[in-house]
Amino acid sequence: MTIRCRIAPSPTGPLHIGTARTALFNYLFARHVGGTFILRLEDTDVARSTVEYERDILDGLHWLGIAWDEGPEVAGQAARGPFGPYRQMQRLPLYAEAAERLLREDKAYPCYCTPEELAADRFASEVAHRPPRYVGRCARLIAAERRAREAEGRKPVIRFRVGEGSVAFDDIVRGRVEFNVDALGGDLVIVRSDGTPLYHFTVVVDDAAMAITHVIRGEDHLSNTPKHILLFRALGAEVPDFAHLPLILNADRTKMSKRKSQTAMADYIAQGFVREALVNYLALLGWSSGTEEEIFTLDEIAGRFDLSRVQQGGAVFDRERLEWLDGQWIRRLSPDELVERMAPFLTAALAVRRAEGAVVRDPSEAELRSLVPLVRERLPVLGAIGSLVDFLFLEDVTVEPDLLVPKRWDVAQALDGLAQARRVIADVGAVSFEADEIEPPLRALCEARGWKAGDLFMAIRVAVTGRTTAPPLFDTMVALGYERTLARLDAAREGLAAVA
Question: DSSP 3-state assignment of 346?
């Protein structure tokens, strides 16, 4: 048997962390066992589905490196796979045919209940402290009764007969699971009165038609599974194996949701997380490699991936851990790769400064390459590049006078320290202006004057960068250049003197 699994996103919102993690697990499982990974777009919610959301989902999956073996036509490329079309709105005749078959076999029936009748039934259940359940008002109507209701202008939905008893299945992640049919809420609506099919019906028809062998999805779908199994059986289809992945939780162990959390994948991409780190981190959200190792390529994860190592408990999303992992991957990039990936983020950061009124020059390729040793060990995400080095490309920096005065110094001492530092740096000269030539005489100055080196270096750092944190001071000065370093020291001293 060829193993076939799928991801079936609905383009009613952007690609979020949960969908990306589910897509990744399906992809990894298919690659590990030599199976087929399918993408199917569940776009029957016409009111909420948009082309923009579809593009966001597809682009996000492509960016992560999750490629499907079968799927719809996208970006000018033709659909591929023997079970198309892969958009549900193009499969409506299949759902109509399946619904008609269930009606013929009396496994489903038309239901003419009005919204008012259903609301009254729900209210009665609440009063009686019973869970809401369809009462079966239309389950045994004879032909004459149906005609009478249609004569009243009622348009029926189609309900599936769920029957009685229990539904049990062996979940790959959760083991044996059993549901009582009484808990399903009564006979299930599978087609609306306007003829459009509902999710529970379309997903089963499609999984059966596409020969899906494994349904790997989030734990929030667990309660839907008995309904789907009953529909598979009614359609005479093979019931696939199920694996329900743990929920993704916030740090406080509440469910991650777009209302309370940052869930859109596009946000993480825009912030400068690298794809290798995001894939690596998503794989570890609920799955264990069985070792102490944490850093894996996509292919390495696929080689190790086993659904038996998926945990049952919720997977906590830890932003700090993600940033740590991202930093590890940034340091693994070659200089050329790092320059290529960080350049757009630096360009965007400088554009913001330019819009704020700063005089900005664009870095050359050589200057970008010179940044690599400065930032490689300090970037948590590529988007942080601007806050680390944008001062290098500004004509002038704004220096807060208070920041020029270390805690152990007063204004007079700061002015003296900056003047002496300026003299020492000037004596190094433009030709010898390298980090290992600048540091020793400045340390000697501190020793001779009885200063703590950290105090003088902080004053110099603020003078030349405008901030208290920056890449290593002496490398920063070299990147800034001899003339610009002296000019900024002079400007800082003048600004501090004017305030004093």
Answer: helix
Q: One of 107, 155, 255, 258 is an active-site residue; which one?
A: 258
Which of these CATH numbers, 3.40.710.10, 3.40.50.620, 2.40.260.10, 1.10.287.620, describes 91-245?
Answer: 3.40.50.620
Following DSSP, what letter does each residue of 53-93 receive, concatenated?
HHHHHHHHHHHHT---SBB--BTTBPPBSTT---BGGG-HH
Let me know if domain 401-499 sits in CATH 3.50.50.60. Answer: no
* 258 belongs to the catalytic site: yes
Can you tell me the distance from the alpha carbon of 359 to that of 18, in angstroms, rounded to the nearest whole number? Answer: 43
DSSP 288-304: --SSS-----HHHHHHH
Reported pTM: 0.91
Instruction: Give the pLDDT of residue 260.
Output: 67
| Strand positions, DSSP E, 82-236 | 108-111, 157-160, 166-171, 175-180, 188-191, 214-218
Closest CA to 487 of 425, 443, 416: 425
Nearby residues of 337 by Cβ (< 8 Å), 6 or more positions away: none
Only one residue has tokens 């259940």, namely: 125
Q: What pLDDT, on the 0 to 100 scale, is given for residue 469?
A: 87
* AA letter at 460: I
Among 210, 217, 279, 274, residue whose Cα is nearest residue 242: 217
Q: Where are the chain's structural domains?
A: 4-88+249-316, 91-245, 333-393, 401-499
Which tokens belong to 40?
Answer: 């199917």
Residues whose CB falls within 8 Å of the CB of residue 431, separated by 6 or more in sequence, listed in order: none
| Tens digit of each residue's pLDDT (9 = 90 or more) over 7-32 | 999 999 999 999 999 999 999 999 99
329 SS3 class: helix
